[in-house]
Amino acid sequence: MGKSAEWHAIRAEANTVVCPDCHMPPGTVCRNQWTGQPTTHLPAHASRIVFARKPMPQSDGDPIVDLDAQASEPG
After folding, report:
1. Residue 4 and residue 62: Cα distance in Å, rounded?
2. For 29-71, what is the HEC assignment?
3. Is residue 50 in some structural domain?
4. What is the DSSP letter of 73?
């Protein structure tokens, strides 16, 4: 029997981020760490699913400042 629409939706969502477990980049499916084959039973590693669902911080428009560089500047 094929996978459900929900399974495919979870996989698509998870594939938008890097997997913290197998380190597969966005747009690719997770791999089994021992065989190197794509995961088939689960849509993705659980940590990748959680990471994909985590809200990303919104930029308030302020530029990113390198505090280490500022600390080493004279004056």
Report:
1. 43
2. CCECCCCCCECCCCCCCHHHHHHHHCCCCCCCCCCCCCHHHHH
3. yes
4. S
pLDDT digits (tens, 9 = 90+) for 13-62: 999 999 999 999 999 999 999 999 999 999 999 999 999 999 877 666 66
The model's pTM: 0.70
> 22 lies in which domain range?
5-55
60 found inside a domain: no
Has residue 73 been placed in a domain?
Answer: no
* Domain assignment of residue 15, yes or no: yes
Nearest to 18 by CA among 47, 55, 57: 47
* Total domains, the chain: 1
- Give the C-alpha separation, 11 to 5, whole Å: 10
